[in-house]
TrEMBL record:
Chain segments annotated as transmembrane: none
Residues covered by the HTH cro/C1-type domain: 23-77
InterPro entries associated with the record: Cro/C1-type_HTH (IPR001387), Lambda_DNA-bd_dom_sf (IPR010982)
Pfam family, one: HTH_3
Lineage per the UniProt record: Bacteria, Pseudomonadati, Pseudomonadota, Alphaproteobacteria, Rhodospirillales
Protein's name in the database: Helix-turn-helix transcriptional regulator
């Protein structure tokens, strides 16, 4: 694997771990237990525990659902406050 690819993977994993830490802190601040969150996501409390403790990495869809279950967006978790718009293909 090329060094650039390894670095890209490491950055993505670091970003996911940061999102997980923020989501875990928000879950705790809201007083939501792992079992309650697991029920909302259709998974187990053990899976939530593994995600929160770095033993497993949730998929992008799981991260999105986790944020939605807590009433936030991943953008809010990342600190993005402005809406992001994508330019149409071919547009400047």
């Amino acid at each position: 694997m090329a060094a650039a690819s390894r670095h890209a993977i490491a950055r993505a994993l670091g970003r996911a771990r940061a999102q997980i830490a923020r989501l875990a802190a928000l879950r705790q601040a809201l007083g939501i237990g792992r079992a309650e969150l697991a029920d909302a996501l259709g998974t187990t409390r053990q899976t939530i525990y593994r995600w929160e403790h770095g033993q497993a990495v949730p998929s992008a869809l799981d991260l999105w659902a986790w944020a939605a279950a807590l009433g936030v967006t991943l953008g809010e978790i990342e600190g993005v406050t402005e809406p992001v718009t994508l330019a149409a293909e071919g547009a400047p």
